[in-house]
Design goal:
Catalyzes the hydrolysis of the adenine ring of phosphoribosyl-AMP. It catalyses: 1-(5-phospho-beta-D-ribosyl)-5'-AMP + H2O = 1-(5-phospho-beta-D-ribosyl)-5-[(5-phospho-beta-D-ribosylamino)methylideneamino]imidazole-4-carboxamide; 1-(5-phospho-beta-D-ribosyl)-ATP + H2O = 1-(5-phospho-beta-D-ribosyl)-5'-AMP + diphosphate + H(+). This protein is of the alpha+beta class. 17% of the residues lie in helices and 34% in strands. The protein has a domain of 93 residues: Phosphoribosyl-AMP cyclohydrolase (Ubiquitin-like (UB roll), Roll), CATH 3.10.20. A four-stranded mixed β-sheet has the order 2-1-6-5. Strands 3-4 form a two-stranded antiparallel sheet. Strand 3 and strand 4 form a beta hairpin. Helix 1 runs antiparallel to helix 2. The longest helix has 10 residues. 23% of the residues are buried.
Length: 133
């Protein structure tokens, strides 16, 4: 089995849009931080540089986590599932992972049948991006 980034990308199953879901998990705590999409180029860049890169569907281009906010993700371990159609990146998250200023993107919960926000922002979007999101 090869370990070249392009050969690893070739083993993965991308959807019709050329994307694969990627779940980011904090390597030492197990906290699930976010889910985003990668294309082949993002996979190769992530494996080559050690800085996690995704594909932004809204912008239609590569998105290097933290490029505008400074809240970078550094790759600790790159895994994929048995069907080779979902990626798990274990990362060292610098700062918050969510664009809302929260530690992770999973802050909505259903409690007693009611949607509940279970985490408040740790940093304002103005401080993250210089503007309101």
């Amino acid at each position: 089995m090869t370990n070249a980034p392009a050969a690893i990308a070739d083993r993965l199953t991308f959807n019709e849009q050329g994307l694969i879901p990627a779940i980011a998990q904090q390597h030492d705590s197990g906290e699930v931080l976010m889910m985003a999409w990668m294309n082949r180029e993002a996979v190769i860049e992530t494996l080559s540089t050690g800085r996690v890169c995704y594909f932004s569907r809204s912008r239609g281009k590569l998105w290097r986590k933290g490029e505008s906010s400074g809240q970078e993700q550094h790759l600790v371990d790159f895994r994929y599932d048995c069907d080779q159609d979902t990626i798990l990146v274990q990362v060292d998250q610098k700062g918050v992972a969510c664009h809302t200023g929260r530690r992770n993107c999973f802050y909505f919960a259903v409690r007693n049948g009611v949607e509940t926000i279970i985490a408040e922002p740790e940093i304002s979007t103005e401080d993250l991006y210089g503007t309101q999101k």
